Amino acid sequence: MVGVMEQLGRRERKKAEVRARISEFATAMFLERGFDAVSVSEVAEAADVARPTVFAHFARKEDLLFDRYPEAEALMVAAISDRPDGTSAVQALSDLLVRLADEGHPLSTIRGQFRRFWEVVAESRALQSRARELLEQIEQAIAAAMARTAVPEPQLTAALAVAAYRTVHLTAVRRILDGEDDTVVAADHRAQTVHALAVVDGHLAGLRNQTTAAATAR
Asked: At the top level of CATH, which class does the domain 2-59 belong to?
């Protein structure tokens, strides 16, 4: 049994290594030439894999650039599912996003070195469309995690939290693209993330209190 598990572990590591190599070559090519100017066949050749191998690891060409979205979803779901007692789901998301920003995690892309990344996204409607789809997937995953942990109105809570963060994030991205000092933008982004999600959390708590008070008064 141990041998089988080790074999499975090696197989998964190899798959992860191939996936990372494909994404690294693709990202470098997209950043250099633009997303629409690079074909999947060119990526496969550069990464020394067959074209079908690319699609075995990535459902869409756009996912070659957005390769960290599964990680983002997993982190957010874990933050909600494993949050401490007394911490709301929205606060748990806020804490996670702030921690990623403070750590300079690659998922926190409000830094000057990511300007070209966002330029590539801004140049491609296909990437913008896929980004919206992936954000909707994350929202649904968050809502499911909230439902499993007894958050009232999980769909609404998830939608409001995602919309609030999306607004803050896109504002920061536009400022980065406009050439503003990325240190200032990153600090503002962090503060606005905390503020926006606190507003969502407070508003939802107020609504729940009003609903409880109205039900008690009947």
From this structure: mainly alpha
